[in-house]
Amino acid sequence: MTDDMVRISNLRITRPAFEIGDVSFTIPRGAVVGLVGPNGAGKTTVIRSLLGLLTPDAGQIEVLGHPAGSSTALSKTGVVLDQPTAAAEWRVHSLGRRLAPFYTDWDVELFTDLLDRLDVPQGQRVGELSRGQGVKLSLASALAQRPELLILDEPSSGLDPASRREIGDVIRQFMVDPHHAVLFSTHITTDLDNLADELIVLIGGRIAHHGPLPDAKEDFAMARSTGEVPDGTLGVQHLGEQWSALIRTDDSAKFGPEVVIDEATIDDIIIHLAAAHEEATA
Amino acid sequence: MTFAFTRFDLMSWFPRRQTLLPLAFIVIVGIALPVPGMAIATSAFVTSLMLSTPFLGDERDRLDTLYGVLPISRRAIVVGRALSILLYGVVAMTIATVTTLSVAAIRGTTIAPELLMTGYAASFAIIGLSVGVQLPVLFRIGYSRGRLVVYAPVLLIAGAAWINQATGVIDGDIINTIPLEVGVGACVAIGTLGIITGTLLAVRLYTTRELR
After folding, report:
1. pLDDT tens-digit series, residues A174-226
2. Per the CB < 8 Å rule, is B208 touching A55?
3. Under an 8 A CB cutoff, do B70 and A101 touch?
4. 3-class SS string, chain B
5. How many angstroms separate the CA atoms of B1 and A6, rounded?
6. For residue A170, what is the enclosing H or E element?
7. Which residues of B touch A (CB under 8 A)?
8. Phi, psi angles (nearest 5°) of residue A264
9. How far is B13 from B11, CA to CA, in rounded Å?
10. pLDDT tens column, B20-54
């Protein structure tokens, strides 16, 4: 049993529409890792590589000590994608019957309990479910496999706050077992509050920041002022005469009293790191 | 896991109207056309045309992605799919046989066992050719881009027959002199070769396909 459930080393993928460059990270056992970034940053591509759906041009990916996409790795990996992968005419309850033969640890009772708890009508057809119900169905089937690793690709986009909270609660319950781990890709960064241990910010196919979630908020701060933009700012954005930018917290002392310094949210970090990336690549 | 996938696959696409209606068409052909063996030949062409149906479902319902995250190898998926198509062919041929024998009994005619044997062998060859041509293409590029290949085996056979008729390369009388065992053996060999080659090629192509 290794401590790292996922190891990605020097992942490179180049396709006409996107590029992933030199991405490396690990997901330790017992951790919830949030993967955030703007649209087109490469979050879904990294996740698809992890699942073996895409073949990287270079680099190594190990999931639970096995090559990405291998049957052994996938047998212990629960996956929730942005849309359910099930035929529209299938009944909700039949999904369990269809998937169970592929998993030795499939838990029929857990599947039914989760559907009840998450208010997914079992007699309904998959095509008749709302987006939120579809995500909950995917989550129930992913957890009924009794996985060690749970991978979620933007499960909460388009969901109401109550549904997002329900999904968060289910993930917290999954993480009660210290041998489990979660990779959670999301646009809605508030979903990661009180849930994620680590944060990976992906910008332009590269890791712009990786570290414990509380450290991200401590490492960066927001600076706002008018007039000339001093050195040491990242991703400057202008609104009229006022500018705002991300700064390293350690550099706060370098700015004069005319610069207002506030706490940075995860959204601030993503937006300004993305702007800094655009400036650098322009 | 191959059989688990075959079961899953059949549960996905078999109990659909668009899959079951062509089976009814075989019965209609068997009743309406008084040519012995016509229903059996129809069952082969129906199976050939239906081969792409599961691939349509894969694309429409994102089942390709589901297969990608199931803990089974891509080889098991290809072999499982080939088996489910062959099972559809067996069901189609069984319906054709029952229709042929029932119609013959009602009309008071007899069907020569040799005719049935030839019909089965020719049908097997057609299905084998279809698997050999269609399976690799559909597994590699999916339904949308590969759907025209569905008609390739039928066009290939019809084209060969037309060219033969126009040029007279193989005389009909010569075909009639071929012993039954040789004809059946050749058809079985063509069918088997098509199924094995098509499945192996599909495994090779599907293994390297990127799933979205």
Report:
1. 999 999 999 999 888 888 887 889 999 999 889 988 989 888 888 888 988 88
2. yes
3. no
4. CHHHHHHHHHHHHCCCHHHHHHHHHHHHHHHHCCCCCHHHHHHHHHHHHHCCHHHHHHHHCCHHHHHHHCCCCHHHHHHHHHHHHHHHHHHHHHHHHHHHHHHHHHHCCCCCHHHHHHHHHHHHHHHHHHHHHHHHHHHHHHHHHHHHHHHHHHHHHHHHHHHHHHHCCCCHHHHHHCCHHHHHHHHHHHHHHHHHHHHHHHHHHHHCCCCC
5. 25
6. helix A161-174
7. 1, 4, 7-8, 11-12, 16, 57, 60-63, 65-66, 68-73, 208, 210-212
8. -95, 135
9. 6
10. 889 999 999 888 887 778 888 899 989 988 898 89
Which helix (H) or strand (E) segment holds residue A67: the answer is strand A66-67
Strand A242-248 with A233-239, pairing: antiparallel
Calculate the CA dihedral of residues A13, A54, A168, A87 and round it to 10 degrees. Answer: 150
Closest among A219, A217, A244 to A230, alpha carbons compared:
A244
For A77-93, the pLDDT digits (tens) are 999 987 778 888 899 99
Amino acid residing at B203: V
Q: Backbone phi, then psi, for A97, in 5-degree steps?
A: -65, -35
Return the number of other C-beta atoms located less than 10 Å from residue B63's C-beta: 21
Core vs surface per residue A165-185: b (16+ CB within 10 A) or e: ebbbebbeebbeeeebbbbbb
What phi, psi does A37 have (nearest 5°)? 160, 160
Which residues in chain A come in under a pLDDT of 50?
1
Please report residues of A whose CB lies closer than 8 A to that of B7. 101
Give the nearest partner residue to A74 out of B11, B63, B70, using CB atoms.
Answer: B70
Q: Look up tokens 């490469």; give the residue.
A: A42
The count of CB pairs under 8 A between chains A and B is 60
Cα separation of B82 and B76, whole Å? 10
Report the residue count for chain B.
212
Cα–chain center distance at A151: 8
Joined together, the tokens standing for residue A260 give 């207002």
